[in-house]
Amino acid sequence: MSSHRQEPVRRVSAPEITARKGKTPIVCLTAYTAPMAELLDPHCDLLLVGDSVGMVVHGLPNTVGVTLEMMILHGQAVMRGSKAAMVVVDMPFGSYEGSAELAYANAARIMKETGAQAVKVEAGSTVVANIDYLVKRGIPVMGHVGLRPQAVLVDGGFKAKGKGLDERQRILEDALATEAAGAFAVVVEGVAEGLAREITLALGVPTIGIGASSGCDGQILVTDDMLGLFDWTPKFVRRYADLRGEIGRAVAAYADDVRARRFPGPAEIYFAKAG
Ligand code: KIV
């Protein structure tokens, strides 16, 4: 008997991302909504539901105010919109640092309530024990070293890292400890030239760079940045579109049409049935 049910497309898994180390570059972007996830899915290996959602979508000044509930809602939306890419959800500030048990309870909620394949944590030396605890209990974890946006209040701003020798060594050690704790890949953000390459050579798992040079195993950008939705983007972003200009032009044209009573026209209204 034949079934009309479509075979589900299998998503990229954490071991498949790890196996890409040193092979073809891993393509990653952030996603926060179902329609955007649908557009990105055919082109990306991995979609990150980043806590950057707090700044990009909710207008927060940084990621510190992002909640677990926000991450779960956006994670669910991205899962609904995508079908093949691996989906990784960021653990927000305060949800994983305090203890391994706290990290596990919150990571398990993300996994169960979104169906995502992994979580990401900003990995300083103090949280590697929590990464180990999660991985040993079945939760794939992606690390994040270098510029750690959740540390913005301690750092006094979003500042590139690894310009001095001591800091370079500390970041390299963070990355090595994150891998030793069982992370399947490590995001390297905002580090001085050369350091990302050094980390990439030192690790057996892939590095995913953002503002970290081409010396990584993959790249990630905030999608809204690369699509040109903001009037300012950091130096490391390449703008592949000018959606801010496009949206401005489209909305101005709509406003002109409404004011001149050109919209709606005959093609855009319903007519009653004759007779
Ligand atoms: O939150 C985020 O979007 C991220 C990327 C910048 C890597 O962590």
Essential attributes:
275 residues, alpha/beta, TIM Barrel, 8-stranded parallel β-barrel, 8 strands, 13% strand, globular, binds 3-methyl-2-oxobutanoic acid
Describe the secondary structure blueprint for this structure.
Layout: H1 14-19, E1 26-30, H2 34-40, E2 46-49, H3 53-56, H4 68-81, E3 86-90, H5 100-114, E4 118-120, H6 128-136, E5 141-146, H7 152-155, H8 165-180, E6 185-189, H9 195-202, E7 207-210, E8 218-221, H10 223-226, H11 243-259
Parallel strand pairs: 1-2, 1-8, 2-3, 3-4, 4-5, 5-6, 6-7, 7-8
The structure holds 3-methyl-2-oxobutanoic acid.
Question: Describe it for me?
Answer:
The structure is a single chain. By secondary structure, the chain is of the alpha/beta class. The protein has a single domain, classed as Phosphoenolpyruvate-binding domains (TIM Barrel, Alpha-Beta Barrel), CATH 3.20.20.60. It has helices at 14-19, 34-40, 53-56, 68-81, 100-114, 128-136, 152-155, 165-180, 195-202, 223-226, 243-259, and strands at residues 26-30, 46-49, 86-90, 118-120, 141-146, 185-189, 207-210, 218-221. It starts with 13 loop residues before the first helix and ends in a 16-residue tail after the last helix. Helix 2 crosses helix 4 (68-81), helix 5 (100-114) packs across helix 6 and helix 8 (165-180) packs parallel to helix 9 (195-202). The protein is globular. The mean pLDDT is 95. Helices cover 38% and strands 13% of the residues. The chain contains eleven helices and eight strands. The protein has an eight-stranded parallel beta barrel with strand order 1-2-3-4-5-6-7-8, surrounded by five helices. The longest helix has 17 residues, at 243-259. 3-methyl-2-oxobutanoic acid is lined by residues 30, 48, 50-52, 90, 144, 187, 189, 210, 220, 222. Residues 30, 48, 50-52, 90, 144, 187, 189, 210, 220, 222 line the site of 3-methyl-2-oxobutanoic acid.
